[in-house]
Amino acid sequence: MGELVDVKSLTQTEAAERAALLSVQRYDIAVDLTDLPTGPHVRTTSTITFTCRTPGAHTFVDAAATVLRATLNGRELGPADEARLTLEDLAADNTLVVECEQADTRAGAGVHKAVDPADGEVYLWMSFEPDQARHVWACFDQPDLKAPHTFTVKAPSGWTVTSNTGTAETEASGTSTVWKFAATPPLSPYNTVVNAGPFHQVRRTIEGYDLGLYSRRSLAAVLDRDAEKLFTVTAQGLRFFGEQFGMPFPQPRYDQVFVPEFGGAMENFGCVTWSDSHLRRSTPSAGEDELQARILLHEMAHMWFGNIVTMSWWDDLWLNESFAEFAANWAAAEATVHTDVWSRHLTDGKVEAYLADQGPISHPIRQPIHDVAQAMSIFDAITYPKGASALRQLQVYVGEKAFRAGMTSYFARFAWRNTTLQDLIDELAAASGKDLDVWKEGWLETAGTDRFSLDLTGEQPVLVGSGPAGPPRPQVLAVGAYTVTGDALERTDLQLVDVQSERTPVNLPQGADFYLVNDDDLTFASTRPVASAATAGKLPTTIARAVAATSMWDALLTGEAGAQQTLDGLVAVLRVETAPSIVETYLQMAAAAAELWTPAAQRERSAEQLAEVCRQLADQPQLRRPALRTLARFTTDVEELIGDDIDLRWRALVRLSELGVDTAGPVADLLAQDPDPDAKNRAAAVRAAAPSAAAKAETWQAVVEHTLPLGAVYPVMSAFWRPGQEDLLAGYGEQYLTLLPTLHQGGMIPGLYFTAALFPVFGIDEAFVARAAEVKDGLAPVVATTLASRADEVARMLRARAQGETVGGGA
Prior knowledge:
Blueprint: H1 12-21, E1 22-32, E2 42-52, E3 59-62, E4 66-72, E5 75-76, E6 84-87, E7 93-102, E8 111-115, E9 122-126, E10 149-156, E11 160-163, E12 168-173, E13 176-181, E14 194-197, E15 200-206, E16 209-215, H2 220-244, E17 253-259, E18 265-266, E19 271-275, H3 286-301, E20 309-311, H4 318-335, H5 341-357, H6 372-375, H7 382-398, H8 400-414, E21 417-419, H9 421-432, H10 437-444, E22 450-455, E23 462-466, E24 475-485, E25 488-499, E26 503-505, E27 514-517, E28 525-527, H11 533-536, H12 542-557, H13 563-574, H14 580-597, H15 603-617, H16 624-634, H17 639-642, H18 646-658, H19 664-673, H20 679-689, H21 693-704, H22 713-720, H23 726-729, H24 732-739, H25 748-757, H26 766-773, H27 781-803
Parallel strand pairs: 1-10, 16-17, 17-19, 20-21, 22-28
Antiparallel strand pairs: 1-2, 2-7, 3-6, 4-5, 4-7, 8-9, 10-13, 11-14, 12-13, 15-16, 18-19, 22-23, 23-26, 24-25, 24-27
Helix pairs in contact: 2-3, 2-4, 3-4, 3-14, 4-7, 5-7, 5-12, 5-14, 7-8, 8-9, 12-13, 13-14, 13-15, 14-15, 14-16, 15-16, 16-18, 18-19, 18-20, 20-21, 20-22, 21-22, 25-27, 26-27
GO biological process, one term: peptide catabolic process
Keywords: Aminopeptidase, Hydrolase, Metal-binding, Metalloprotease, Protease, Zinc
Protein name: Aminopeptidase N
């Protein structure tokens, strides 16, 4: 890794003081990218026009790039200290001009230069959440100082520049072109963006919106393949959100830019940036299509939740992320072909959230945030899937009509302003006629997971619930009654239960063959009893099977069920599930159970069991791709099944490499055939899996020195940590501990990725995990939180491997 430079983090107190003092009228930002084809530098001039409510007062502006020159009202300013420029003797009306230069565009924060290995072309992207705009230009980098931004960008000729307002006036001059963008609406600095490079572009006009897609040129064929799907979901989402929120997206242009070496996606107003890893190089599976749609709708929902209406401070991050996650699922289920999306939310997002909420990083969905560094640590499964689940429960609790009315009034009242939790609660309470203060306290301000079970000893079932510290939260959930009919279970009754206390009678008859608590998955709660494998496979609907499967996984996490028992249940639902995207999540869960949770002595049996069901699923065309992907992970006898599929051949090579087969020749042949410009990352995963000390050392160095792009870190490290290679992996735990103080280099996303992916899962013991969990000194909050979460999960894996089948069974 390069040299790490820390900068001071803005505190909530400082932000409140600055917001009380200042009002920002506008930003005019000039950006010079002309050094990038051969050099690393991005140069900016930020002109900030602002007023001061107390003339003569002082404050500071954030400036983490190298400040070349700065003037306040024509007066020269001194150098920046700890990424801040002091502003003395403010006038009522002020003009601040700051010239900056950022040279760390490979591993730094906020701005990134990527070189396409396919053709040597250079691409530049910027991404600023939560406070990384200051690494590129001077600004008041906090969410409640919103202002219009006007960008003027000088870029090499032949490049395309994208920004928030879309269409730009251009003026060519020699070897460069100047792009002048119209002013944005009032935005927080973190909602702004500039991307640039020799992009391939596809555009459509749909329902009055000018929609654009961009990628690097070497992925033009892939973008062209996916364009119609992306345009369709984009148009569906804009229509749905405009209707549900009573406010159409307020500008005619909406762009989405797929860039290399990016992590995830970012909701910049009118110009969303994606990692181009989401442009699948092989034909996407149904699950990949659904994931792409969910991400697209999540980022789009942020146009309203985050951009148009913005939280005042990071303690209300959930107003952005929980709502965007909820709204993405809502839109996908109601407005697109991805109608099973709530089951997918349950089997991947909520599974992760149940683990997080019952472990050491559990925190309220909304919690006090001291500074921005702490805010980086809560972009997690509690803020995202748990928060989304709480909002779905709120929609059920108040009713969808009232929920929609509350959203409409919220956006009408607070557009282009900042809000707090109470603002939203007040609008929803007014629309529904319900006092939501108890709901708010229980769901948003209290950590932990409720648990429900059924007492069947009386004349009718009684739902028994407990909360984190007493009674369960107020909520509405469903209990289904099922009767055996032939070889299946039929739902004969369903009752909604309004929970207000520990024991709630359920209006269902005694004597059903099976009762499913939280049927239809309307709430966020751990439920018992756990369905048996035989029962889970007989449930009649995708969502019912998903509730049962999630309960099985939760029992594995808590040590109430063993890995084999859990795998049996997952195999049972795999044999009957018909929704392709849900099959993919079950295969991923089953593979994890077989590989990471199963005792070493039972792994071979578990692998054979999973391989058998994969071969059966591969006979169904819509399930063939995910089934063969999983099969290639566990067996070598797949050559006749995968044919010329390059993606599957890479996966098969990882397995052969793991078993000690010399793959150098096949890797070279496949690199020559693969049109993917990032195929070398697939080769790196093959090398990472090899049972060779040299291969492990090379892989480790490539990852920790950022030789591999961020998107390759997880797949390469998954190949690195292989069962049966414990002796080779034994020394990497200590190396990991020494890296921890530096893993936040480059910002929040690298901190999350590297801390999680590099954490050892083999070659360590419970003593190491306990020691790692205690490391605190010198760690950025995002690293410390991710470390605690990963350590907790791996500790549970180790206990499951040690216990084997000594734990109890399910009902």
